[in-house]
Amino acid sequence: MTTQEIHAGSSMQEVLDAFPGAQRALMRQYHIGGCSHCGFDLSDHLGDVLAKHSVLNVAEVLEYIKTSHEQEQQLQLSPQELAQVLEGETVPRLIDVRSSEEQAIVKLEAALPLTQALTQEMMRDWPKDTPIVFYCHHGIRSLEAASYFIGHGFTNARSLKGGIDAWAQEVDTSLPRY
Questions:
Q1: What is the C-alpha separation between 133 and 95, in angstroms, rounded?
Q2: pLDDT, mean of residues 137-145
Q3: N or C: which end of the chain has fewer CB within 10 A?
Q4: Which among 21, 14, 12 has a CA at the least distance from the CA of 159?
Q5: From CA 128, how far away is CA 152, in angstroms rounded?
Q6: Tens digit of pLDDT for each residue in 31-49?
Q7: What is the DSSP-derived secondary structure letter of residue 11?
Q8: CA 162 to chain centre
Q9: Which region, left, alpha or beta, applies to residue 76 given φ > 0 means left and ψ of -120 to 50 means alpha?
Q10: Which residues pair with 11 in a beta bridge?
């Protein structure tokens, strides 16, 4: 199913297949899909999910999901783009959002682990225009982290597309993969 074919009768699985960030978009704008009260099953139809939450304009929701998808694409840096940026004058802060167990396997040099203490420091002390690139294993958690920080006023937060796994395949093949 292409993105143009998504409609009120589409299952939530079809919506998420077409727009992987749709659940984040629905939560951000309509408070749908973030907890047991506002959640949905993948087999539920989009129109039914929206009606359950008194959201009646399906076309508006679809446009918001599409726009959010396009914005998320712009938040992502390919491994090659990040390699170029790291060679430039303005080097971003690298933030690893993976678990300490994952970080023990492989990490990027100079990356800081995202801890509660670092999060508090960033919110309190870092300029909101600090260049930041978040990364994880495959780029999902880091995209969520970048979105979170953007939602808190950071204007230069990005995510490594494909995560450290893509980096290890495309930029530094000497790194272990897991």
A1: 6
A2: 94
A3: C
A4: 21
A5: 9
A6: 898 788 889 999 999 999 9
A7: B
A8: 11
A9: beta
A10: 45
